[in-house]
């Protein structure tokens, strides 16, 4: 009696709570679990939590083992055990008890028992076998809830081999009167099918029955199985297409009970399932696809845009439409739908839009075109996932024309996100590439590691590196290349401190010490290792180990070690001065003991080395006197604070200076002071000077450079002067600029997609890139006030073409026409169709040594005196006026010569600029004009321009007060590359003017680093008043725009650079020597074909003169 | 679906359900990595992650992150809605659910999840049905505590739908139970307690 009352009262709170909150289980802080949870929340450290949970687990263990524990208590204990497991603590002792609870408990305890089992155990766990009988028993129970629980656990995990034991019972449940049981049974069978398809083969007919079940829930469940079956073998289920279509039509038509609605959308899960099935069925099957067109269209139509769930259906629908046999009308609608995704401000939808695009562009790359700008925006999205999906999309639309830009984008992305990947890749590069690798690779790698602000990502990158190296060193190091070991030592020396949490701080030191001990470690590597150890010795633990090693190696008979020891000691002195004065004093005394006596004039300690060196073909031994001097210098040097000469100090310099290790010549000090060793030095030391920077702070430099160039603004800074008169449509120029960048990028990315289309933003392969500068004349006020005579210049393409490249367009006819329709009162300068090449003037400051230069092929342009002797020179922009340029060429003019076009080429350092001048010789000012530049062959970049947004920009640049009848000049500068990068021979002006400006010193370094060379004799040009050599080189310079670096006596050096093509920007060096009557030319370049083709052009050029 | 994880903003795991067999070590590794990745993401970022060869769909509700891993060809948005539906279920069950509800009654949260998702697939997407199933079982639980195991419990087990009133009549209090709506009210008459 009292027992009953007590139980009643204890249950009251939970019952009462049901009043207010339907079915809610209330917090039970008074229970043991509650106490445990509360206890944990009050803890402050992980350690405390560990202790607490350990204690808890102990008590649980005790309780479960006790025979007095009732099942009800067991249930409570089990809940706590689950909780502990969730926190990550093993409670394996309770597994067996969980099974016992499921076996023996009453329904509710069983429920917890089953839950614990499903959480604790794995499909492969042997414990599960103990559960089979329990499950079997429960399946046969008359209690619905027990059956449900058994089916639930079965569909979550069941040992594969035991499926036959329960299969008949589960099958039986397919005909159970309760739909919940039928549904669970179907899902259990689905699970069986997944883990052991063979076992359920014989009951496929029963699946069909489930598909026809009167309860939609059971039918939905059966679709899981069918999706799987159809995916594996669509052919044998084609007959189901009709049924699936009917079901979908019913669902879409809202024929299901309202229960199945989700946010007033009828059974979305079911719809999606059906759509996926239809996709598999209709794939590459026109007949089947035709059956589903109607219902697909209806799905598309019914899914109104209001909720995520409809987007989910739409997305699936679009996917299906693009998977099944295409029907153009549907495809159109689907494409429209994708637009809704892509343009959605919701980022999730945008992502799916990109994903859908990625899917559909495989069929039709043009579908990406309408979304160019969105795609470009997404490429710079702050969310990596969006970026990645965009890249995936770009990957799908990659073609021969945009592949380079896309690959650059991908690399950029890779470097930003995949630290681990990067380190691992570099590791394998080092391990495999080994010592044959170009020396600049390890250096650039180190620089990349060292550079950058000290933010989380950088630190992570370094930590990854350190960790991976430590594990590498822990393994077999004998096979690692020396150069890699050097990199490892440097990184470990610099960044081992990042492994703070490492329990054993001495481990890195010991690993390094092991390296020192190893026989295969080369002398130079040892010095790197010692350097690293020196850096590490700031901690006492390190110092002890370090000291030990220093001791060992100080007795080594190699002068390099001596030096190293000295400098190390100095560092040691600095770092430990305060704490370890005693140690230092003993160090010093020790050092003097071991070092000084050995600096004997006979240098006997070098004998061994010298004989080795001599054997290896080193330079002959020098006099003892000379040696002595060297050593004295050496000593002095070593006491300098971390001169640039030693690898050990390298890092500290580079870090503080923010300079990279590459910039320091590590070997200069050593080799300078020990001439007899220079031979060896030369071969082992990394050659660092003059090496091209490949890796920079932001990644691979070459890539970055071009990526950086790509989005350069089209136009220069806006001038406010004209803004009052701008038409309302004018966008603020500042906002325009980033837009333009993106357009440009778009042009390079979407190149080659679709057909030529003049309204599309940007397009077309590589090449010419025009930008309009507009200059305004003095009587600008007229512009505002007067109504202008309408004026159109319709086209002058071919003329421009000719200017650009007469050979390419020679075949294209087309006269330049200039008309002046009188009806229009407004003029627009509308299109500038140009060939889009990402190089614009804006990039000048970035492209340091000059990017690929533009080329004008063909010399069909005839210099003609401008009709009115225009003083066009005065209109040259200031920044271009000093540069070499061609003569002004009139292109066309209208009948009364009131408007004329002329152009000239200006050779800039990094670009060829085409200036197009539009001169208005009329009295009235031009308000707007249409300038259209098209170029069929070269592919055209169009950007919209006009008076409204471009003209004002350059007003400030033009000197005021010029010839009166020129109201306005529009300059069109163009910079272009060759469209076809293939052959060097064709385009001799690939080597551009002024090409590669290098100093004699740089020349020497470059010369040594280039691998491909060619020697040939050329004809000398003879003139009266010049040396033959000078004359020849001048001729080459004039013809090919080569850069004559220096002429010394009978030798001359010349440099140039490839304008475009695969080896874009690559230099080629020429060394010329007058030899008898001919010029012996020696060409060198990193690009194999370059010397060859350059030579050809040289020959040609010289023959012509 | 491959697995579902619930964790707090502090990275504490609140619920985990694995639909694919994995070793404990692997599970822990995945959990750690995923929690780190998801927590590092900013609120405005999209709810999908490509992670290993899976797709992770996550959503944050108050201080709790719900995180599902699905296969690549699965529909992300519908997974997001699965999460949402689960939250709705929890909400309905606990009555404006908060993290504490889930911490203290995590086994209930598991039961609801099992009733909603079976073997990684949505088995019953009807809110009403799921809660009905749960509450029937729950009710048993409460009633059982009130009843002596020797009296009348078997009736409930055999057929929960019809036997409740019988069982309830044995109780020292009267429960007015509406089988249709599952919502029920309890009136206590202390005087009738024997």
TrEMBL record, chain A:
Topology relative to the membrane: Peripheral membrane protein
GO BP of this protein: intracellular protein transport; vesicle-mediated transport
Cell location: Endomembrane system
Primary localization: membrane
GO cellular component terms attached to this protein's record: AP-4 adaptor complex; endomembrane system
SUPFAM superfamilies hit by this protein: ARM repeat (SSF48371)
Entry-linked InterPro entries: Adaptor_Complx_Large_Subunit, AP4_complex_esu, AP4E1_C, ARM-like, ARM-type_fold, Clathrin/coatomer_adapt-like_N
AP-4 complex subunit epsilon-1 C-terminal domain span: 994-1103
Region listing for Disordered, in residue ranges: 705-742, 812-843
Sorted UniProt keywords: Golgi apparatus, Membrane, Protein transport, Transport
Ranges of biased composition (kind: Low complexity): 817-827
PANTHER family: ADAPTIN, ALPHA/GAMMA/EPSILON
Family listed: Belongs to the adaptor complexes large subunit family.
Subunit comment: Adaptor protein complex 4 (AP-4) is a heterotetramer composed of two large adaptins, a medium adaptin and a small adaptin.
Role description: Subunit of novel type of clathrin- or non-clathrin-associated protein coat involved in targeting proteins from the trans-Golgi network (TGN) to the endosomal-lysosomal system.
Protein name listed in UniProt: AP-4 complex subunit epsilon
Protein source organism: Oncorhynchus kisutch
UniProt lineage: Eukaryota, Metazoa, Chordata, Craniata, Vertebrata
Gene that specifies this protein: ap4e1
């Amino acid at each position: 009696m009292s027992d009953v009352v007590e139980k009643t009262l204890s249950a009251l709170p939970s019952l009462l709570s049901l009043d207010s909150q339907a079915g809610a289980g209330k917090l039970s802080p008074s229970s043991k679990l509650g106490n445990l949870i509360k206890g944990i929340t009050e803890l402050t450290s992980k350690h405390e939590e560990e202790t607490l949970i350990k204690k808890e687990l102990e008590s649980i263990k005790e309780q479960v083992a006790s025979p007095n524990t009732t099942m009800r208590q067991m249930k409570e204990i089990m809940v706590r055990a689950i909780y502990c497991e969730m926190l990550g603590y093993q409670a394996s002792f309770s597994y067996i008890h969980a099974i016992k609870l499921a076996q023996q408990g009453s329904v509710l305890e069983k429920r917890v028992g089953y839950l614990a089992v499903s959480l604790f155990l794995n499909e492969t766990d042997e414990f599960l076998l103990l559960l089979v009988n329990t499950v079997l028993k429960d399946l046969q129970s008359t209690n619905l809830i027990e059956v449900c629980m058994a089916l639930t656990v079965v569909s979550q995990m069941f040992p594969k081999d035991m499926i036959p034991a329960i299969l008949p019972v589960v099958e039986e449940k397919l005909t159970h009167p309760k739909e919940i049981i039928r549904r669970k049974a179907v899902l259990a069978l689905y699970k069986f099918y997944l883990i052991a398809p063979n076992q359920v083969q014989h009951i496929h007919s029963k699946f069909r029955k489930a598909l026809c079940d009167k309860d939609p829930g059971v039918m939905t469940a059966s679709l899981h199985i069918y999706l799987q079956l159809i995916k594996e073998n669509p052919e044998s289920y084609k007959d189901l297409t009709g049924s699936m279509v009917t079901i979908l039509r019913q669902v879409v038509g809202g024929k299901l009970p309202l229960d199945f609605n989700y946010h007033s959308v009828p059974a979305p899960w079911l719809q999606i399932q059906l759509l996926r099935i239809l996709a598999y069925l209709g794939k590459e099957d026109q007949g089947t696809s035709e059956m589903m067109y109607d219902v697909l269209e209806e799905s598309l139509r019914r899914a109104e845009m209001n909720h995520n769930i409809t987007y989910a259906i739409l997305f699936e629908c679009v996917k299906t439409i693009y998977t099944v046999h295409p029907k153009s009308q549907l495809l159109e609608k689907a494409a429209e739908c994708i637009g809704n995704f892509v343009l959605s401000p919701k980022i999730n939808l945008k992502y799916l839009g990109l994903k859908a695009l990625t899917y559909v562009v495989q069929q039709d790359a043009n579908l990406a075109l309408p979304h160019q700008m969105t795609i470009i925006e997404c490429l710079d999205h702050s969310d990596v996932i969006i970026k990645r999906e965009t890249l995936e999309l770009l990957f799908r639309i990659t073609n021969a024309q945009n592949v380079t830009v896309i690959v650059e984008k991908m690399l950029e992305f890779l470097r930003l996100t995949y630290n681990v990947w990067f380190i691992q890749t570099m590791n394998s590069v080092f391990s495999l590439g080994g010592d044959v690798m170009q020396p600049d690779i390890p250096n650039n790698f180190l620089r990349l590691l060292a550079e950058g602000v000290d933010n989380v990502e950088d630190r992570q990158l370094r930590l990854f590196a350190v960790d991976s190296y430590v594990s590498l060193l822990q393994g077999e190091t004998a096979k690692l290349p020396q150069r890699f070991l050097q990199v490892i030592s440097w990184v470990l020396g610099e960044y081992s401190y990042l492994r703070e949490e490492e329990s054993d701080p001495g481990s890195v030191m010991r690993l390094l010490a092991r390296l020192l001990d190893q026989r295969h470690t080369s002398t130079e590597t040892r010095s790197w290792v010692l350097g690293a150890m020196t850096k590490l010795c700031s901690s006492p633990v390190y110092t002890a180990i370090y000291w030990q090693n220093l001791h060992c190696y100080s007795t080594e008979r190699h002068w390099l070690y001596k030096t190293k020891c000295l400098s190390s000691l100095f560092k040691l002195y600095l770092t430990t001065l305060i704490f370890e004065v005693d140690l230092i004093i003993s160090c010093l005394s020790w050092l003097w003991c071991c070092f000084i006596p050995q600096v004997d004039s006979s240098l006997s300690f070098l004998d061994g080395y010298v004989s080795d060196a001599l054997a290896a073909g080193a330079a002959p031994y020098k006099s003892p006197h000379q040696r002595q001097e060297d050593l004295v210098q050496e000593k002095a040097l070593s006491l300098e604070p971390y001169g640039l000469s030693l690898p050990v100090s390298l890092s500290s310099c580079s870090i503080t200076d923010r300079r990279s290790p590459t910039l320091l010549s590590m070997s200069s000090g050593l080799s300078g002071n020990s001439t007899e060793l220079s031979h060896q030095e030369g071969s082992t030391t990394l050659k660092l000077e003059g090496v091209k920077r490949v890796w920079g702070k932001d990644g691979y430099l070459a890539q970055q450079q071009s990526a950086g160039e790509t989005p350069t603004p089209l136009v220069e800074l806006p001038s406010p002067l004209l803004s009052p008169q701008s038409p309302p449509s004018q966008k603020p120029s500042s906002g325009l600029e980033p837009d333009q960048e993106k357009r440009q990028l778009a042009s390079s990315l979407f190149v080659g997609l679709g057909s030529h289309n003049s309204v599309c933003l940007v397009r077309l392969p590589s090449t010419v890139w025009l930008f309009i500068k507009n200059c305004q004349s003095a009587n600008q006020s007229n512009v505002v006030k007067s109504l202008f005579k309408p004026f159109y210049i319709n086209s002058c393409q071919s003329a421009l073409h000719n200017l650009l490249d007469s050979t390419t367009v020679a075949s294209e006819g087309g006269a330049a026409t200039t008309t002046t329709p009188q009806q229009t009162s407004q003029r627009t300068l509308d299109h500038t169709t140009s060939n889009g090449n990402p190089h614009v003037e804006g990039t000048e400051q970035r492209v340091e040594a000059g990017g690929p230069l533009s080329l004008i092929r063909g010399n069909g342009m005839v210099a003609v005196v401008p009709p009115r002797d225009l003083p066009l020179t005065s209109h040259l922009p200031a920044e271009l006026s000093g540069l070499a340029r061609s003569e002004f060429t009139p292109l066309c003019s209208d009948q009364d010569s009131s408007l004329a076009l002329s152009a000239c080429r200006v050779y800039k350092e990094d670009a060829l600029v085409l200036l197009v001048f539009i001169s208005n010789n009329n009295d009235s000012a031009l308000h707007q004009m249409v300038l259209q530049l098209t170029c069929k062959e070269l592919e055209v970049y169009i950007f919209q321009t006009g008076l409204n947004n471009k003209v004002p920009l350059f007003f400030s640049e033009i000197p005021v007060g010029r010839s009166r009848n020129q109201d306005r000049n529009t300059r069109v500068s163009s910079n272009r590359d060759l469209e076809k990068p293939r052959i060097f021979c064709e385009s001799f002006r690939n080597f551009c003017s002024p090409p590669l400006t290098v100093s004699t010193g740089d020349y020497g370094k470059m010369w040594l680093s280039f691998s491909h060379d060619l020697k040939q004799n050329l004809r000398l040009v003879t003139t009266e008043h010049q040396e033959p050599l000078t004359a020849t080189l001048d001729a080459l310079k004039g013809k090919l725009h080569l850069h004559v670096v220096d002429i010394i006596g009978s030798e001359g050096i010349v440099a140039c650079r490839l304008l475009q093509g695969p080896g874009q920007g690559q230099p080629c060096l020429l060394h010329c020597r007058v030899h008898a009557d001919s010029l012996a030319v020696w060409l060198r370049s990193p690009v194999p074909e370059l010397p060859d083709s350059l030579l050809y052009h040289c020959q040609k050029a010289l023959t012509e003169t | 679906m491959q697995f579902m994880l619930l964790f707090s903003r502090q990275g504490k795991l609140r619920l985990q359900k694995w639909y694919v067999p994995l070793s404990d070590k692997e599970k822990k590794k995945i959990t750690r990595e995923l929690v780190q990745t998801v927590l590092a993401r900013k609120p405005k970022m999209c709810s999908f992650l490509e992670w290993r060869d899976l797709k992770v769909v996550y959503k944050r509700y108050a201080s709790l992150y719900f995180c599902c891993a699905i296969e690549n060809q699965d529909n992300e948005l519908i997974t997001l809605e699965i999460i949402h539906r689960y939250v709705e279920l929890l909400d309905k069950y606990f009555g404006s659910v908060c993290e504490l509800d889930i911490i203290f009654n995590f086994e209930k949260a598991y039961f609801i999840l099992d009733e909603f998702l079976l073997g990684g697939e949505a088995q019953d997407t009807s809110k009403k049905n799921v809660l009905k199933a749960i509450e029937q079982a729950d009710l048993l639980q409460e009633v059982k505590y009130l009843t002596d195991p020797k009296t009348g419990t078997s009736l409930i087990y055999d057929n929960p739908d019809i036997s409740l009133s019988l069982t309830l009549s044995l109780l020292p209090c009267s429960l007015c139970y509406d089988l249709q709506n599952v919502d029920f009210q309890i009136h206590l008459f202390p005087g009738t307690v024997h």
